[in-house]
From TrEMBL:
GO terms under biological process: double-strand break repair via homologous recombination
One GO CC annotation: cytosol
Subunit structure: Heterotrimer of RecB, RecC and RecD. All subunits contribute to DNA-binding. Interacts with RecA.
Gene3D superfamilies the record matches: 3.90.320.10, P-loop containing nucleotide triphosphate hydrolases (3.40.50.300), PCRA, domain 4 (1.10.486.10), Recbcd, chain B, domain 2 (1.10.3170.10)
Keyword Isomerase applies: yes
Gene Ontology MF terms: 3'-5' DNA helicase activity; ATP binding; DNA binding; exodeoxyribonuclease V activity; magnesium ion binding
Protein name as annotated: RecBCD enzyme subunit RecB
This protein's encoding gene: recB
Amino acid sequence: MPIQHLNPISTPLQTTTLIEASAGTGKTFTMASLYLRLLLQAGDNAFSAPLTVEQILVVTFTDASTQELKERIRSRIHLAKAQFSAYRENQDLSLFLNTENEFLVKENGELTARFLERLDPNEALRRLTFAEQNMDLAAIYTIHGFCRCMLMQYAVNSGIHFNLELVTDETELLNQLANDFWRQQFYGQSFAVSEFIHRKLVSPQNVLKKIRAYLKGETLKVSINRPHLLTIPTDEFLQRELASHLAATTDKVDELKSAWIKHFAEISALFEANYAGTSVFNGNKFKQDYFIARTAKIQDWVNSERRDIPNELWYFTQNYLNGAVLKGKTAFTHRFFHYLDEQKAQIEAAQSQLDLDEKILLFHYLRALNSQLVSYKQHHPEKSFDDLLRLLKNALQSERGEQLATFIRHQYPFAMIDEFQDTDEQQYQIFSSIYVNQPDCGFMMIGDPKQAIYQFRGADIFTYLKAAEDAGRDRFTLSKNYRSDSRLIRAVNGLFDFPAAFIYDNIRFEPVKPGKNQPHFVWRGKQQAPMAFYSGTREQAAEYCADNIRQWLTSAGENQAEFIADTPQDGIQNTRLRPENIAVLVRKSSDADRIKSALQRRGIASVYLSDRTNVFDCTEARELTFILAACLNPFSERHIMNALATGIFAFSVAQLQQIKRQAELLDGWMTRFENYQRIWHRQGVLPMLHRIFLDKSEGDEVNIIGRISARPNAERRLTDLLHLAELLQEAAALNESESALLSWFERQIQGNDRQAEQQVRLESEQNLVKIVTVHKSKGLEYDLVWLPFLAFDDVKSRDEIAIFHDKNAEPQWDMNALHQDKSMQEKLAEEMRLLYVALTRAKYQVAMALPTEFGGKREACWNPVWYALSRGEIGDSIKITGKPENQAAALLSACLNAENYTLETMPETVSDEKWQPPTNAEAPLAAATFTGKIEQNWGVTSFTALAQMHERNQRFHGEESAVKFSEIFDDALDYDEQQDEFLSLNEETAVLWRDFPQEYSPLALKGGTKFGVILHRFFEKHDFDQPIEDAELLALCQGLQLDESWLSPLRMWLESVLRTPLSAGVKLTEINPKNCLKEMQFYLNLNRTFDVKAFNRLLRQYHPPYQRPYLLDQIQGMLRGFIDLVYRHEDKYYLLDYKTNLLSAYNEESIRANMRQHHYDLQYLLYSLALHCFLQRRLPAYDYETHFGGVTYAYVRGMNGTGGTGVFTTLPDVRLIRGLEELVHA
């Protein structure tokens, strides 16, 4: 079916349409133009009605893309409004034709005029204004965002629970399932089977890495000659099939080892005699060094328990030796060599069977994990991105599916799917079931099959091709490239404009034309060719690439490397080359490391934008463990010296020796680390680390940040350090203590339980050469692009999980290599698409290293650059047959016009001269000086901070109102006090727990912050009207470091607490979860005029526990707190605070004394005020005296279920609460 040129004014909208947008052809601009047409119901073949932004569904694949699309569309709407506003005044058509915002097609004034004749400018302005105002409501989603929205919005039709919880990273769950399968199926197997599993599968995580792309809830189809092996139980397969295959192989391995041992002396003598004289062997195939290395490997194998057969053994077959001799020479013979020839075919067949067994085991693993995943998801609310797709697809195919599709189609009459080449069968089934062949709707797929490069993520080019067939005649293309230099466009056309350029006939290359004039790259006064090729070896490529970039940047400093427009009227400003204008594209991280190192040796900073390294692998992570350990052990000389010896502190050996020898210096560091420990305890690990990074050493003018900034790769080091500090702060909430946090940190460094957020963050891109993988570069553009390795990389043989698509375009796993040609063809086709993406990223020039001749190895292998330059002559098989042209110079001259490329030879030795960045003689830029005044006294405080402030001021000032401002910012959590271990209990208290053995009494539990946090967490998580679960008690024991003998006493105690009567006689067990709020957080606004003296007057008048004035600083900002429990009982609202304090008695007198000591009366007044304000805003007819029930303080160690002990209740005076309200909100 021929592809038509797309005209954004006349393209039909009320149908299924496919737009193929080649690289740089203005896809996003076109989408925005079509969006405007839909808003205005304009143009030929318009939609049947004008649509709003909430009715036009736009789906893309990343969050960044959705944001970019939304902003681009918003901008186009705004500019179109301005055009229509001006057009309404003077009816001048040129307003639309002569603008940089090509809302309409410039070249067709007649079509534009007809377009405008049908539009009322006033109505157009009204629609555009409404659209601009509502852009925040625009239906622009990622594919997963759309699925989640539909599942939640139509939960009844889709059959989805309302409490669906999206999990962005399933690594932890998958690791758990993989470990479970490994343990259940592989433990207890025979030695031979276990050795095979360990050697082939290695570990559960290694298996998971191989199969993860196929864990989508539906098991992959398989092509295999013995399909019953896939259905038998795993245990049966291991013990019957695999064990018998291993036994046969083991016998043969033992036979081979015995034969080698028997004949090794004779074989060695033959080779030594050969090398003593003139060797008969070709030095590239069997020189003496090769003989020594190969026999060493074989000897290691013979002396080991290994059951596999090393490849080195097959170099000693008579057939190989006969082919390894020099011309005219004859290889010596030996019966062992002939014996190997006889055994090779049989052994290779046995090895092939074991290779198949390994794949069958992988399939068993895949099937089991898919099944367990589906089962887990059915019983848990957590859903992954893939689950969202599967659930919506299943919902659309269910009995209610047609109704659901109608609802979605009615909500979104038009849908635009961006990046459609990256779709898969599941995604296309979703949208096709909603839109394809349906009346009164439009469905537009926008993509480029030449850029479908994400097969490893599940993208399926065959789904795209099926969708292209469904679109029929409504297939369009964008024919102008607005990105690149016109000569570069022609060069790319020359490389791909031949039949089957992308292997498959139905992925066609349509040459594009230049869309606008672009500057050219001018270096040393000469306009550079759009493609620059450099011939040599792969080993030379990295160094030459780095040196070429150095030369460019050196010339740029002399104004000899610029981007210059052809003529001044192009309206394009000439610009000088900068490091960030250059990108080096690679395929893998090891190549990125080579380029980064080569650039670094020349003094050129770079950033690897595709870095997926885990931050815990960096040196700074390991060094940080020593620093954290020193903070935990501030009086340990060993820990202190370990910390100071790290590269983070960067002390010299002499400085370290001085600290070690001089007691006062070491004492000073111990004091400093003790202070760090104190900050860690009080404020958290992040503030402590920030303090460490900012502190200066004695006699030092710079801090850690400054010292690191002066070193190579400083930005990378600082980024990693700050990232690690943030991860530690996040993990602190999940670990009970500082030592537990350090243990967690050490486990991460060892590689256990790593998460996606631990991937290294990118440092700044400014003034840095970019290194990026081809996959990551898709959709981006760079001024100059270097491709150092692409032409050297032969395509490897089949993957472990080799996929091919059957006649129904469904993926299948080709286990027996029966469809090897198909699977390899798919792989080669993707290689061509990757090459196309790499070559179309540049605006001005592509530089590429090439081999002098392709296929120079004994067995020439396929390469995408060779395929393109030979115009497909090398064929679409991994091994090259025949004798195609392989000389780079000849291939280039036949393929490209001479003016569009240059070819040079890389020198054998490359300069390692360093680049000297140009110094700017102009005055340095500086930010304007701020002369305004910033309020320094605003902060967030809490009850705990106020109580500490009062105690401090009482000691030092003794006045009712201090003059300084509060700068407190704390976590506002109410931690219980550290207890006196030697507190004596009276008889009354001992009687409370007389049924408990003394050592298991609640009074025997060690108190303090940790104990309080763990008990608070229990009450927060536990549903009061439910029995206490064993798992809850186990968690308590683990947190409190108690053994299992405490399970029963803890249950008895906590059940007693839950049964103890509170205010109005209600018990915790009687409180329904719907009638309570736990850990209710609040913020009270404290105005600048907060009057401490007035506050104390109110307390003196209406608060009986008042004894002496509170001495508080002048406070401004927010008062933050957490109320442990707010509950409703008989239409009254109560607040409750748990206390784990250990008292000598728990009668009313003792509790009142404890509350006075710790100022808990101040706490409950502030909490009551917060609850009062909250209820005032939530209850329409709220009245304090009617609805506020009171305050309860639950001293849980004294609550034995009988009432009368351990509970304090009160109701603050209404006049006091109203007075405090006026004071706080004054």
